[in-house]
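Exam revision sheet. Question 4 asks you to relate a sequence to its structure. Input first:
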Amino acid sequence: MQTLIHESFQDLQPVPAFCDNGGVSGATPKGACRSHLWFYRDGKVRCKFISGVLEELRRACTRSRPDSFQLAVDLATRYSGEIINADAMQMYKGLPIITNKISSEERRGIPHHLFDRIALDQETWWVGQFREEASKTIQEIRSRGKLPIVVGGTHYYITGLLFDDKLVREDPPSLETNEPQGDSASKYPILGASAEVMLEKLREVDPAMADRWHPNDTRKIRRSLEIYLTTGKRASDIYAEQQERKESKRTSDDGLTTQSLHDDALLFWVHTDRKMLTDRLDRRVDKMLHNGLIDETQELYRYLQAEAASGQPVDRSRGIWQSIGFAQFEPYLQALEGEATDMARLEQLRSKGIEETQAATRRYAQYQIKWITKKLVPPLREEGLFRRLYVLDSTNIDRFKDDVLEQGSNLTKRFLEGEALPDPAELSATAQQVLTSTAQASSRKETPCRKVCQICHVTLVTEEAWQRHIQGTPHRRVAKRMKKRALVAAAPRQACDEETATLTEQVLKLSLDAQHPP
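Answer key, structure tokens:
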């Protein structure tokens, strides 16, 4: 049987998703906007689903942003579908603005699943739990003769749903559910410690994984440590075993290769030119403000204050606190609570909150593009799915109906009916450019390393990232400023005591070393 599968990205305020995009989900959420949609035609292809059993399914996934949702709803309307959420932030109850949920009017009567499932004091679902719930929902929808359409920007959710061997599948079963988020933390107190403490422990038990993560990436550090604590096996060993199984599966002669299982997948990637995307993201934040973003951040702030008053610490490195918006406006919210803050100061903090929310949204969009390029496209190419990736250009909003909705619908119809499909690169000039550049970028391997810029106080974990950093404008500006200060301080050296002179030399050397690393 066939399926329609799509992984989306979030390029706007808080939203994570299925495929990857130039930034989607949770906060915009987490470049160009992109989303994916995959189909398997009915009765034509038998594909192996997550359980390992041959099944017939249909799934669709689209990006978690307005145009992606429009595409998803449009396809659901035309092909009798129902929509499944794959955005971690949108699973939280309430907060429709900060999590960028589709409104009831925009849903146009189409059933939507896996929204509003998690309370504010709960953590996001692990991949295993999402896979279990999404798979069950897909089967229920299929039993009604409808087409499941998965929408969202939480990439690892989509990857887990699409590629069975991308997950850590080891005992205990709790790793496949949501249990680790509560039970493991209470059983292993170190999982509630700071990133620095957990990273130090991870270096002891699994140095390979410790070197892999940025020291501020609390979620990944915690997860790697948790895998070791709950399974007794190092995450690096588990991943190595998975890779071996994958290679063995690829070279086996049983005739049931991964490519044949996913041979009839179709994916749509809704793409927006970077400059236009930046403008849309900024306007998106403006619209969120108009719709009540400040009210929702105040709701979160009051919740945080109440928890603190009751002696319940809140881990703000995970859960709903990862969404974009609250942290950026928190100084403004704190000032609102004060009695002496004047209106000019309040307006200044509010404006800064808006600017930082817009900037965070743009950064997330860039991160999403990088994620899809480095994490999603490689397995798509390995599994023979990249040739079913169709880029739909949504840059010109006046042509959205023709370039996205109609073109996407026509391709879907041809695919579901078993007709021949065009070469994805021939769909448009934009499609050719995006697919070519993405394929090339996904093939470039980065060199692992760990370098710390003492000037900017940042840690880089690849040589390529280090080179980009030291050649970037922000670093060069700070280095130049420090060098200038050091030279000025060095001028009256005779008047300085020995300790001050030594410090001046160290600062100057630090500035020069950062610009010309060994």
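Marking note for examiners. The CA atoms of residues 83 and 392 lie 20 Å apart.
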